[in-house]
Amino acid sequence: MSRPRIVIVGAGFAGYRAARVLSRLTRHKADITLLNPTDYFLYLPLLPQVAAGILEPRRVTVSLTGTLPDVRLVLGEADAVDLDGHTVRYTGPEGDGGTLPFDRLILAAGSVNKLLPIPGVAEHAHGFRGLPEALYLRDHVTRQMELAAAADDPASCSARCTFVVVGAGYTGTEVAAQGKLFTDSQVRRRPLRAGTRPRWLLLDIAERVLPEMDEKLSRTADRVLRQRGVEVRMGTSVKEATHRGVLLTDGEFVDTRTLVWCVGVRPDPLAESLELPLEKGRLLVDPYLRVPGRSELFAAGDAAAVPDLENPGAYTPMTAQHAWRQGKAVAHNVAASLGLGERRVYRHRDLGFVVDLGGVKAAANPLGIPLSGVAAGAVTRGYHLAAMPGNRVRVAADWLLDAVLPRQAVQLGLVRSWSVPLDTASPELARVPSGPEKAETPGEESRAHTGDGSGPADRIQDPDAARHPEPPGPVKQPDLPEGHEPPQPSSDAPAVHKPRPADPTAPAPPKPGSPAPSEGDS
């Protein structure tokens, strides 16, 4: 008799833990396959420290094959699921396709950047959901500071050292806090023009920073940001983005070459493609994380709308903490469906949150106890070390080195602007010169190559950026200088990105002064 086949789509917090727990529960009584675009699990909460030059990129990644020896890893992205045929169709990293048969399927595909219909944002902003985006941001910020220091024009210098972060949720708050320390450290070694300092703006239409968290955490974070020099603009967002800067909803135009988009997330489009009942793009599941009417299908993490048994009528929020716990619960329930153990409902108890604000500063409320300053910093880093499934010694070593040595502010040039578009369903993957998206939207194909075929050409975000080898960001096609028009991609180029369908639930852009939902992380 053949062993049951379990396929897990996605190796985020939910998928990775489900694979690890299932491997232990089944003890070679089932074939477990993990389908993921990369060969690593990404510890997303420490990504801002990669962008700020504190941690090396591999410190926040954990090898899937190295930590899941009894799980078969298949590199690729799920394109479609045939529930009646019990198969998952996927595309590999080199464009080759395949299918995976299953008896049990766990959908843990995670989430992607949430876009709002604001003019210019998709062309000029960059998200912060994957390692390529963090690497790009680190290079980009370093480059802007170096160009600002060498600029003769005061206006150009000021624009280059101005950085706008939209979304004051968990991610945006940490990016702004860590980024300000990063640029200040560069200025100490290479001063800017007299009277010029790096300027960081944190925008959100919510009333306070970290709107989804405890008010005491919010006040602590707000105080630290303002003391550090970050301009916290609550009740304000971006009305339009251009190649010269951003127009805010309060009417102010900010000259900048950097727009970081941290306006929460939305579920991976794969969940919507199943044509099953959804709750704001998430698959509806029962308390056992099983999709009603589909005994073979389970879902966890950001892709699942899990009933919150502690708050009847509500669903658990899309957080790493919930995804990690749901991964364990869904593993037990899948094993129970195969006759191994008993199933269990997903029930959680809030253990608190931690927000690393850089240096020795943090905001935390472990077990409901509000902390700030050095104590919160110690708890925050201790929590991350305990929560990481690997690389603890390496991460601690990088923290120690950062405390005693100056940061290395150099451009590696590994990730170009065009390779990390904001509007993508694959933030964990960087585009490659021969790999456009599987199904480009009109005009998208023009982002991939240079006109002479010699290599990729970035979109230009500021008028004089054509003089630099790595322009800072994208613009629309008409803004490209003559001779830089990229050709159409070849038909045989391997596809490495999933197409991003339009979000039918996306709200219209808010009018200045009108109430709107928070832009913080979901």
Automatic annotation (TrEMBL):
It comes from the Bacteria. Residues 426-522 are annotated as: Disordered. Keywords: FAD, Flavoprotein, NAD, Oxidoreductase. Gene3D superfamilies: 3.50.50.100. Residues 502-515 have a biased composition (Pro residues). Residues 5-327 form the FAD/NAD(P)-binding domain. Residues 437-450, 459-470 have a biased composition (Basic and acidic residues). Transmembrane segments: none annotated. Pfam families: Pyr_redox_2. Belongs to the NADH dehydrogenase family. This is FAD-dependent oxidoreductase.
